[in-house]
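Standup, Tuesday
Yesterday: got the pipeline producing C-alpha cells again.
Today: sanity-check two examples.
Blockers: none.

Example 1:
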Amino acid sequence: MAYSIAQLNQMGQDDFVAALGAVFEDTPTIAREAWTQRPFTDVTDLHQAMVDVVNVMTQAERLALICAHPDLGSKAKMADASVQEQASVGLDHLTPEEYERFHRLNQAYKEKFGFPFIIAVKKHTKTSILAAFDRRLQNPPDVEMTQALAEITQIAQFRLVAIVTPM
C-alpha cells in the first residue's frame, strides 16, 4: 500500500510502524523511533530521520540490523521486499552452478566478517553482484561493516520511494 507524507505524518505510532516497519529489514524499531521526528517534509526527510536512528544505534544493534538480512540467492524464508528485490535481478532463478557459487561466496563472507553480504541489488546484475562479492571479500571488517550499513540505507531508500507517494 502507498502512503502520502501527509498520511504518514498523521498516523499514530503503531500505524506508522505497521506501514514502514519493514523498510529496514526485520527492524521495526527504526520506524518506531523515527516516528518521533514527525512531521516529515518529504520522502528524503523521512529517509534521513530513519538513517539518523541507525546512526545512533549501538554496535550490537547495527550488527543485528545487518544480520537481519538474508543471504543473496538463498532459498531461505525472507521478507517480501527482499524476495522481490532479489527476483528483480534473477536471484530467484539461479542455475545449480550459480546457486553453488552464491552459496560458497555467502559462506566465505560470513566466515570472514560474521554477518551476511549486503548489497542494494536494484543497482546491480548477477554479474556485478558476483564481482562485488570478490572485491569486498578483500576488505577489512570495519570497512565492510560501514559498506553493509551504506547498502542497507540505500535499500531502505528504494523501499521508501516504493511506499511513499509524491504529494
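Example 2:
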Amino acid sequence: MPDEAVPPFDLAGCLDRVRQRDQAAARELVDHLYPLVIRIVRSHLPRRVAEEDLTQEVFLKMFSRLAQYQGAVPFPHWVSRIAVTTCIDHLRAQKRRPEFRWADLSENEADVLDAVMTNENDVPANDAMAAHELVHKLLNQLKPDDQLVVRLLDLEQKTIAEIAEITGWNQSLIKVRAFRARRKLQKMFQELKRKERS
C-alpha cells in the first residue's frame, strides 16, 4: 500500500485556530516556523545569549503581536522581521567589547589574517574554520545594524531587495550601511596588521 502524501501546511487555517486560542494550533505554528526562526537567531546570535532563549522570545513576541498582523506581507516574512529585530535589540543591549587586538587571535586566525593581508591567494581549505572565526570576531566589533547588513549581504548572500524585506530598511540605506560597514572592517583589518608589525 503506497504511503499517503503529507498534506501541505495550512498556514491561514492554523492562524485562524491560534486566534481562537487553540493550543494545538499554536504548537503546530511554532513547529512550522521553528526552522526559519532558529536559522535567523543562529546567524545573528549575540554573545552570551542562548539561542533557545532568544528563539522563545521571538515566538512570545509573535504571539503577543498576532493581532497586529494585517496580511500585507507573507506571515513568515513578518515573523522574520520580528526575529531580526529581537536579535538587534539584544546586540544593542550588550556593552561594546573593548578594542580588538592581535593578541585576541588564535594562532590559526593570525596565520589566516597574515595570508590575507600579504597576498591575493585564497586561504587554504584547512584554514577555513580559522577564517570563519576571524570574520565573526571582526564582525562583532561593528554596530548591530552594520553587523546585520554584512551578515545578510556577504555571508548569507541575500539581495538588497531581500534585506529590505527582512529589515524594513529602504534599499539606499542598506547600500550605504553595507559600504560603511565594509570600510570599517577593512580599517580594523589594517589596524590589526599594523599592530602585529609594530
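Quick observation on example 2: The mean pLDDT is 77. The two ends are 74 Å apart (CA to CA).
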